[in-house]
Amino acid sequence: MARINLIAWDNNRGLSHDIRLLTEALRNLGHEVSFTAVGPPRERRRWKSLAQRLRRFAQRLQGSSEYRYDLSITLEHVCPDHWGLARRNVFIPNPEWFSGRDRRHLGKFDAVFTKTEAATALFNRLGAPAIHIGFQSTDCFQPGIARQPTFLHLAGASRMKGTERLLAVWRRHPEWPMLHVLQAPGTDDEANSTTGNIEHRREYVADIAEIRALQNTHVFQLCLSETEGWGHYIAEALSCAAVVLTCDAPPMNELVTPERGITVAATAGEPLNLATRYLFDEDALEQAVERCIHMQQAEWEQRGRLARAWYLQNQHGFETRLDAALQKVL
Predict the structure, then answer these.
(1) Considering just the CA atoms, what is the radius of gyration of the chain in Å?
(2) Alpha-carbon distance 309 to 306, whole Å?
(3) From residue 212, how far is each of 140, 152, 320 by CA, in Å?
(4) Using CA atoms, how far apart are residues 111 and 15, in angstroms rounded to an integer?
(5) pLDDT digits over 44-67, tens only?
(6) What is the pLDDT of residue 166?
(7) Helix (H) or strand (E) holding 51
(8) Which among 210, 295, 227 has a CA at the least distance from the CA of 261?
(9) b/e per residue, 144-171, with b = 16+ CB within 10 A?
(10) What are the C-alpha distances in Å from 238 to residues 14, 101, 234, 254, 269?
(11) Reduced to 3 states, what is the DSSP secondary structure of residue 64?
């Protein structure tokens, strides 16, 4: 058993979700897990960081060389303040948020644990000791629910889900079936996008049971991310045995393949830190939606079974990959 400390910003969004899932996996492996909360990057102060490091340096001079933890795992952004807490230090980045400041400190980590193969390639090119662990997501499957061949897009609060372009394409096709869009208020264009075949809800849904019902009643889920660190909402859709439509670009096409979903051609756009933003091709999306509309039930059920099988295999394999990576570092 190792003493492991997680260092991250508990932002009540994706990072909080990562903290919870990683803590659970580490404890399942028998480790003692602690958590050090840090603020958002813009609120971190250089003088505070320097003061903390000087204080730990003084403790070392006084003969206190024992580390509090065997390993610190930092999520998303580098936090130099806390390097002295552990004997070894590991970084789990999201390439789309990997900043120039993060890059300056990259060489000080003993290893970089990557969530996707695309991220592994990126950090290998930077000369970092990258070890692919993948990640895991919440199982949202609810058996026994009647599923309809309708379309769902869970945009949330992200501005990189292709939402506005998706809505524009759907408006051009009043003959298409209903598209249910759930989006946080205050994102993108606030114009009313509800039409005869679009139900566009701009609200926060506090009842998780309602979201789970949406995920399990819609056969087709549109997850047209421009980029992803991992892709929780894609993995959650796969867990529900849905037919997921996503961009045929990394890392989205690592989670969704043509056998267990539908990939939509996409072109590389502007870089976003270390990642690349990909934009789905509108003609290709139209063809994909038409294919779904005319898909027979036997086909979408088969794709759904393969989607859920991949989800379960990934879940079961994550702790094994994480354990192997920890053994290499510790």
Answers:
(1) 21
(2) 5
(3) 6, 12, 28
(4) 20
(5) 555 455 545 544 554 454 444 579
(6) 98
(7) helix 46-61
(8) 295
(9) eeebebbbbbbbbebebbbbbebbebbe
(10) 18, 35, 6, 12, 26
(11) coil
